């Protein structure tokens, strides 16, 4: 990992990668001793934050704890610099540009944010048996929902003599999403990723196990990040624990965010993403006879007609139905979880249905 530019002025925000005018304006209400930073990793009770020229540890203010606002990797935050006691407190999370989250079916059912302010997400797939259009559709749905820009990266191009065939196959479902063939191993084609891994831009990677995410990250550095990734520190009990940083600065000033939560991202609550990933079905569906057509057996269904005529693949429509059903199941689970929470919160109290509704609206 390249060393950070040494800067004696901790208030110099311009060296924080990704800092832009919108953040500058959001931060303008704060004066010394408040400073800005970006979350590098999150631990049980403290956060590592990149501030101008260095990485520090910070706790969370009581106010943020009370409202349950927990900064995540990639967040830009406001810190109170308590110089006299050599400590930093995170007092605010600046507005998020994009937000990668997964719908959690836990008791509190809050959507769990995994990472924030990612500009581009590389959906990594590999030639050979990992190449699965249905899986790419699933990733596109999640990525679109986050607000980040998807780019499909076909890795292990060195293992086939026909990489363009695989690229063309992916293009049939990708719409205007770029599809780029590379070999992380030989570093061929990495230059085509430069548009996205640009100074101040933040990238994350998703894709199934073994497609080459770590190999690609390492290739983007000249040295292995894995070696510098782990840092030893003392936990509260005085033992040494290994903590892992999740935000890396690339030699060219770009940023990569990587953690298991992002790698294993689930569908969650991505209805908006589904509409974007299946742009062609949505467009054709406007011509269905019934407004609430489910594109199954209904008469006058334009989607079924497109399948019969061969302009949309049947497998793609099946995939759309499957993901739609999964999302419906997920929101039902969320609903059940909410009801359970309501019961717990209002146990023994008389609560009007109106109050319950209000509470539910707030919880989303
Ligand atoms: N031939 C070839 N092999 C590659 C390429 N990229 C990665 N590999 C190999 O694929 C295997 C898996 O690569 P990883 O980088 O560990 O995959 P990953 O996506 O990080 O896997 P997880 O950590 O399980 O998510 C390793 O043996 C790599 O050497 C490539 O471009 N070409
Ligand atoms: Zn229809």
UniProtKB/TrEMBL annotation:
GO terms for cellular component: cytoplasm. Its cofactor is Zn(2+). It holds the Pfam family RsgA_GTPase. It is an enzyme of class 3 (hydrolase). GTP binds at residues 155-158, 207-215. Zn(2+) binds at residues 288, 293, 295, 301. InterPro entries: G_CP_dom (IPR030378), P-loop_NTPase (IPR027417), Ribosome_biogen_GTPase_RsgA (IPR004881), RsgA_GTPase_dom (IPR010914). It comes from the Archaea. Binds 1 zinc ion per subunit. Keywords: Cytoplasm, GTP-binding, Hydrolase, Metal-binding, Nucleotide-binding, Ribosome biogenesis, RNA-binding, rRNA-binding, Zinc. Residues 116-263 form the EngC GTPase domain. The keyword Transcription does not apply. Residues 108-265 form the CP-type G domain. One of its GO terms (biological process) is ribosomal small subunit biogenesis. GO terms for molecular function: GTP binding; GTPase activity; metal ion binding; rRNA binding. Its EC number is 3.6.1.-. Its main location: cytoplasm. It is found in: Cytoplasm. Belongs to the TRAFAC class YlqF/YawG GTPase family. RsgA subfamily. One of several proteins that assist in the late maturation steps of the functional core of the 30S ribosomal subunit. Helps release RbfA from mature subunits. May play a role in the assembly of ribosomal proteins into the subunit. Circularly permuted GTPase that catalyzes slow GTP hydrolysis, GTPase activity is stimulated by the 30S ribosomal subunit. Monomer. Associates with 30S ribosomal subunit, binds 16S rRNA. This is Small ribosomal subunit biogenesis GTPase RsgA. It comes from Methanomethylovorans hollandica (strain DSM 15978 / NBRC 107637 / DMS1).
């Amino acid at each position: 990992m390249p060393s950070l530019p040494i800067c004696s002025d901790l208030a110099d925000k311009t060296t924080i990668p990704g800092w832009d005018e919108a953040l500058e304006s959001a931060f303008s209400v704060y004066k010394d001793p408040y400073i800005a930073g970006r979350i590098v990793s999150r631990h049980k009770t403290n956060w590592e934050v990149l501030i101008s020229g260095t990485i520090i540890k910070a706790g969370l203010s009581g106010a943020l704890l009370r409202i349950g606002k927990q900064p995540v990797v990639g967040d830009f935050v406001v810190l109170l610099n308590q110089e006299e006691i050599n400590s930093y407190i995170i007092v605010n999370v600046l507005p998020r540009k994009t937000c990668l989250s997964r719908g959690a079916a836990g008791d509190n059912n809050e959507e769990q944010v995994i990472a924030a302010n990612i500009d581009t997400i590389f959906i990594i797939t590999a030639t050979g048996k990992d190449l699965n259009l249905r899986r790419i559709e699933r990733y596109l749905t999640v990525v679109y929902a986050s607000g980040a820009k998807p780019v499909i990266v076909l890795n292990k191009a060195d293992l086939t003599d026909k990489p363009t065939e695989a690229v063309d196959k992916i293009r049939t479902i990708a719409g205007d999403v770029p599809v780029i063939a590379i070999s992380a191993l030989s570093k061929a084609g990495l230059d085509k990723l430069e548009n996205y891994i640009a100074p101040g831009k933040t990238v994350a990677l998703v894709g199934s196990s073994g497609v080459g995410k770590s190999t690609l990250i390492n290739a983007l550095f000249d040295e292995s990040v894995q070696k510098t990734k782990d840092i030893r520190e003392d936990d509260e009990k005085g033992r040494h624990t290994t903590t892992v940083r999740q935000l890396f600065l690339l030699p060219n000033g770009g940023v990569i965010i990587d953690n298991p939560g992002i790698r294993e991202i689930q569908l969650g609550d991505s209805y908006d993403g589904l509409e974007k990933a299946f742009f062609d079905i949505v467009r054709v569906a406007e011509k269905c006879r019934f407004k609430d057509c489910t594109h199954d057996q209904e008469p006058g269904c334009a989607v079924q007609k497109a399948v019969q005529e061969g302009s949309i693949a049947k497998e793609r429509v099946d995939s759309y139905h499957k993901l739609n059903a999964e999302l419906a199941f997920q929101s039902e689970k969320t609903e059940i979880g909410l009801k359970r929470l309501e019961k717990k919160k209002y146990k023994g109290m008389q609560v009007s249905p109106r109050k319950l509704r209000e509470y539910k609206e707030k919880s989303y």
